[in-house]
Design goal:
326 residues, alpha/beta, Rossmann fold, UDP-galactose 4-epimerase, domain 1, 2 domains, seven-stranded parallel beta sheet, 14 strands, globular, binds nicotinamide-adenine-dinucleotide
Length: 326
């Protein structure tokens, strides 16, 4: 199979690259390396069955050719991470919306119909307070939405593009609403909590909890996520499909901090930072976010193999090695 992965030098994308190359597929990545890196793909750069195009999805003139080559496309390229969402509200809209629109238009005109998987986000549920978030729920968009919501709005636009191209142009599309995904190669500097906590615990710094820490999230290991994405891409349909992808073991960020400290055997303290200080501006967080997985489980067989503790132990070991801490 020929697989095109936009954003394939990033956290989730690079694990998809590993999976498809290990299976004997040919893989082409397009990535501008804004948050992704060559290091994530270092093991593959010289392989004849792998190609990296360093380019911006919004302007890249190789897009049509790459799309025409592919049997399957994972569209992951996006401006991601709370810090970048707040800093770059305009280029976020452009990258996330125009990038997706360009990609789907290229598919429309490529002369055939590859499977397309679009990465959306649990952020589209907005500030809903339901215990479990289901794909058929109404979504909430706040009036006079501050730039913080541009990410959700951009992902909703991508969903609408995807479903419309599926129904009108017959392109088989799966939209995945990803919940918090964690694991190797995720970096903490754009606002992701787990890599930041793990580094702080391993190096003995205080774990900085943003807000009061009662907000809760459910985490999934990326090595499970990519298996699910692969199986879901196989289910792409011209009726268009929206599926939550994540785990449903929710815990508060305070409990996560305690868990990381315990697993690392660290004596780090836990400190709290108001959102305004952490992000340099007002920020509305979502109190809890947990997916309903009924649809996912009806569609695919894979169930997560990685527990949160196993993921944390693995990340702690990697960071210890990287930081030279015994
Ligand atoms: N990690 C999560 O928990 C999570 C949750 C919800 C949704 N998602 C979605 O999954 C996808 C992958 O996210 P990730 O966590 O791997 O983040 P990431 O930042 O590691 O990956 C995004 C990749 O896109 C690339 N990119 C950004 N702008 C680009 C452009 N204009 N042209 C080409 N490449 C560009 C980046 O360099 C990066 O490699 C994103 O679409 C994100 O919105 C992730």
């Amino acid at each position: 199979m020929h697989v095109l992965i936009t954003g394939g030098a990033g956290f989730i994308g690079s694990h998809l690259v590993d999976r498809h190359l290990a299976r004997g597929d040919k893989v082409h990545v397009v990535d501008d390396l804004s948050t992704g890196s060559r290091d994530n793909l270092a093991a593959h750069l010289d392989r004849p069955d792998f190609r990296l195009s360093e380019a911006d999805i919004v302007t890249w003139d190789g897009l049509s050719e790459a799309v025409g080559w592919a049997d399957r496309i994972y569209h992951l390229a996006a401006v991601v991470g709370v810090f970048r969402v707040l800093e770059l509200p305009i280029s976020l809209m452009s990258t996330n919306v125009i990038g997706c629109a360009r990609l789907l238009r290229a598919v429309e005109h490529c002369g055939w119909r590859p499977q397309v998987l679009l990465a959306s986000s649990s952020e589209v549920y907005g500030p809903r307070t339901d215990p479990c978030l289901r794909e058929d729920m109404d979504l909430i968009i706040q009036p006079e939405a501050p730039p913080r919501w541009n990410y959700a709005i951009s992902k909703l636009a991508d969903e609408a593009f995807g479903l419309s191209y599926a129904r009108i142009e017959g392109i088989p599309v799966t939209v995945v609403r990803l919940f918090n995904t964690v694991g190797p190669r995720q970096v903490g500097r754009y606002g992701m909590v787990v890599p930041r906590f793990v580094r702080q615990a391993v190096t003995g710094e205080p774990l900085m909890v943003f807000g009061d820490g009662t907000q809760s999230r459910a985490f999934t290991d990326v090595r499970d996520t990519v298996v699910m994405l692969d199986q879901l891409a196989d289910q792409a349909t011209t009726e268009g499909l929206i599926v939550n992808v994540g785990g449903n073991h929710e815990l508060s960020i305070n409990d996560l901090a305690r868990r990381v400290i315990e697993r690392a055997g660290s004596d780090s303290a836990i400190e709290r930072l108001p959102y305004e200080v952490a992000y340099g501006q007002q920020y509305v967080d979502i109190p809890h976010r947990c997916p309903d997985l009924t649809r996912l489980h009806a569609l695919i067989e894979h169930r997560p193999q990685w527990t949160l503790d196993a993921t944390l132990d693995d990340l702690i070991a990697r960071v210890r090695q990287r930081e030279g801490v015994s």
